[in-house]
Design a protein that fits this description.
Length: about 325
Amino acid sequence: MSEIIEETQPIKKQKKSGKKRFWITLLGFIVIVSLGVFGGYNSGIDIRTSAEATLVSGKLDEQFQLGAIALAEGRYDHARQHFEYIVQHNASYPGAAAGMAEAILGMSFTATPVPTLTPTLTPTPDMRGVEAIYANAQQLINAGDWTNALAALDQLRKDDPNYRTAEVDGMYYFALRYNGADKISKIGDLEGGIYFLTLAERFGPLDSTANNLRENARLYIIAASFWEINWEQAVNYFGQLATYAPNIWDGASNLTAGERYRIALMRYGDQLYNGGDNCGAYAQYSNALAYGALDEVAAKNSKRAYEVCYPPTATPEPTAIVIIDTPTETPVTP
């Protein structure tokens, strides 16, 4: 019996070894398949993400082209919708913010075409009426009554387009320039001010003061287009105005650029705080304090953000100083 047992033992070992190799092979196959599936899944996600990004980019390009066409055709409301869609999805898209601002300006006013007048030829024209209108226009300009001065000049041109052309052009420039400047600086009518300054430019180049007013008004309108849509961009544009023209204001909101900058900083700080960026949020709140007090929400968030971003430093335990009294040896005199 012992011989038979000895002969069968190797056979049993081979069966166990074969089963073990089978399971190892099967397990390896499962691992390889799993890795392949996982890799394919990740690859599929990457491909889909890339495809979605390409699709969105193409959509924004299409919207920009449609907005540009609508702007060129004077369909300002349609143009604004196209550019606003782009800004909401990609605030840094080249030309989108400027296009939206131009569309908003176009919606604010529509230039009235100047009618082509056919002068009536008379043998002995009576110039007293024209001269009286001219004198009245001069008086109105001297009084700073730009609206009535422009109305008088329009009447003068209607009655006699050739009367003292150079002088009338100069009066038009003066009245349009100061009317536009007053609308921006005194009334807060930014769109109207831009419109009249642009009309004045038809009669001569704008001086640096008027041109700066117009550019600041345009920048304010662009900045306001991001209000409650993209606080980061609102901070960017109102920050520029707060540095060079903090007192320019909008009559619709009665807010200066400096005040708008303070509010935008707080709201952008809230956004960063809610997103977990405590240090970035505290920086925005600190900048806002330079322009005024924080509101209740921003003040609470600023305090919490500071505590997280600048935690108190632990005070080290005092170290005991041990003084060792070393005995002084008395020299021995020989």
